[in-house]
């Protein structure tokens, strides 16, 4: 049996999404900016897709949704633009990010820090959550931007973006949130609270890879990151990824339609699986499940290296991860485990299971049996594992 439980890394493209994209490769392949019928025949589908993306996050028409190549680009764009606009010009000197942002934020923050910007990295609490209060403590009149993700990719922890948005509005500071792991899992409505910029990536909600977006509130326009043509209102040049945009639109529509299912059925399946995992001795989950996206579990099996567990799972056809896919080759401990100050023997034990609306109960039943056997085998050969009752 093959079981895919790495949906926070990427998701299967929904077949309906794929069907809508297909004609735009070999039939309707015109460049939308050309002046002939090959171009104009792409326009209705592009318009329809953009409307679906706007509707998916409840963005008013006056605001901008700019299509990018991925969330990494959107995140880089926001931080580097803020650097050019506010830090380099001396208008402000400081930004705030959480210490568990995706590497596309952390590495960019470190880069602009090396160029002279002061960066505060907000800590998470013992539940893996950034507290809004921490923002209030460090925000200053010289702060240009706060960037805190909506939901964490490692733990699924949902961060208090509404409260943080209010603090930013009160201090007249721009607020960006990386909503990559929130879309399709919790309701995302840019009109329900103060947010200036919001990052998305289609392949996290059953759309294609290589297409993302940045929502920009009216009046908070950023300078272009890519200069060149006039695509996307001159904000993001480069020939439009027509099939990708069409796919992202359809995927967004489906994600919104499936939201109730994610929040009830997927959550239920996740919770049952988590209960079964926690019946195994010496297991530990950082964030309480009611504070998490419905599909994610980051669990530690004391005495078992995360990579060893992945090896056993993979041999049985099950795909999981030790944390974010882009950091999984460096064998460092999971950054969230490090940030909560987990003891050294727990820091390398995290395994992330992330479900989707395609996950079945049969797959979860199979997985729990494989995990139980793997725990028994791996602890059996471990020289360091000894049961410690205080953990449960
Ligand atoms: N996280 C994970 O395994 P791209 O690759 O640019 O489409 O998405 C980057 C990205 C940005 N923000 C968050 C919160 C993310 O989770 C990701 C992708 C994957 O956790 C791959 S590293």
The tally of beta strands, per DSSP, is 12
Give the strand content.
5-15%
Radius of gyration: 22 Å
Order of helices and strands: EHHHHEHEHEHEHEEEHHEEHEHHEH
Bound molecules: ligand C6P
Give short descriptive properties of this protein:
seven-stranded mixed beta sheet; 14% strand; 392 residues; 12 strands; 14 helices; Aspartate Aminotransferase, domain 1; alpha/beta; three-stranded antiparallel beta sheet; single chain; binds ligand C6P; 2 domains; Aspartate Aminotransferase, domain 2
How would you describe this protein?
The chain has 392 residues and is an alpha/beta fold. 38% of the residues lie in helices and 14% in strands. The chain has two domains: 3-9 and 259-380, Aspartate Aminotransferase, domain 1; 15-257, Aspartate Aminotransferase, domain 2. It has helices at residues 15-21, 23-26, 37-40, 43-56, 71-87, 103-114, 132-138, 161-170, 242-257, 259-278, 306-315, 335-339, 344-347, 361-380; strands spanning 3-4, 64-68, 94-98, 118-122, 143-147, 174-178, 197-201, 212-216, 283-285, 296-301, 318-319, 350-354. Helix 8 (161-170) links the parallel strand 5 and strand 6 (174-178). The strands form three sheets. A seven-stranded mixed beta sheet has the order 2-8-7-6-5-3-4, with helices on both faces. It has a three-stranded antiparallel beta sheet with strand order 9-10-12. It has a two-stranded parallel ribbon with strand order 1-11. Ligand C6P binds at residues 8-9, 70-72, 102, 104, 149, 153, 178, 180-181, 201, 203, 212, 324-326.
């Amino acid at each position: 049996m093959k079981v895919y439980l790495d949906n926070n890394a990427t998701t299967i493209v929904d077949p309906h999404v794929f069907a809508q994209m297909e004609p735009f490769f070999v039939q309707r392949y015109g460049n939308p900016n050309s002046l002939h019928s090959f171009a104009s025949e792409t326009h209705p589908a592009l318009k329809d897709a953009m409307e679906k993306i706007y509707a998916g996050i409840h963005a008013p028409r006056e605001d901008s949704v700019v299509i990018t190549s991925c969330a990494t680009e959107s995140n880089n764009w926001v931080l580097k633009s803020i650097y050019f606009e506010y830090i380099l010009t001396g208008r402000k000197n400081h930004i705030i990010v959480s210490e568990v942002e995706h590497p596309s934020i952390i590495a960019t923050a470190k880069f602009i820090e090396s160029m002279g910007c002061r960066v505060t990295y907000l800590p998470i609490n013992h539940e893996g959550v950034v507290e809004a209060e921490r923002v209030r403590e460090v925000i200053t009149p010289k702060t240009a931007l706060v960037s805190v993700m909506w939901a964490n990719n490692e733990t699924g922890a949902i961060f208090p973006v509404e409260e943080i948005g209010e603090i930013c509005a009160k201090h007249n500071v721009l607020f960006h949130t990386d909503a990559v792991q929130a879309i399709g899992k919790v309701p995302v409505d840019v009109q329900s609270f103060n947010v200036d910029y919001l990052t998305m990536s289609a392949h996290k909600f059953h759309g294609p890879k290589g297409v993302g977006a940045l929502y920009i509130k009216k009046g908070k326009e950023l300078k272009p990151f890519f200069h060149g043509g006039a695509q996307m209102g001159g904000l993001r040049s480069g020939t439009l990824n027509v099939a990708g945009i069409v796919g992202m639109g359809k995927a967004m529509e489906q994600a919104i339609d499936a939201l109730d299912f994610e929040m009830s059925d997927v959550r239920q399946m996740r919770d049952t699986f988590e209960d079964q995992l926690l019946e195994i001795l010496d297991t530990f989950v950082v964030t309480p499940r009611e504070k998490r996206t419905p599909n994610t579990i980051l669990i530690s099996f004391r005495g078992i290296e995360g990579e060893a567990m992945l090896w056993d799972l993979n041999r049985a056809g099950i795909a999981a991860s030790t944390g974010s896919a882009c950091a999984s080759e460096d064998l460092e401990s999971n950054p969230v485990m490090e940030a909560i100050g987990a003891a050294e023997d727990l820091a390398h034990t995290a395994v992330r299971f992330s479900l989707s609306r395609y996950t079945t109960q049969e797959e979860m039943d199979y997985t729990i049996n494989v995990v139980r056997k793997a725990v028994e085998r791996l602890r059996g050969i471990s020289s360091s594992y000894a049961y410690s009752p205080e953990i449960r």
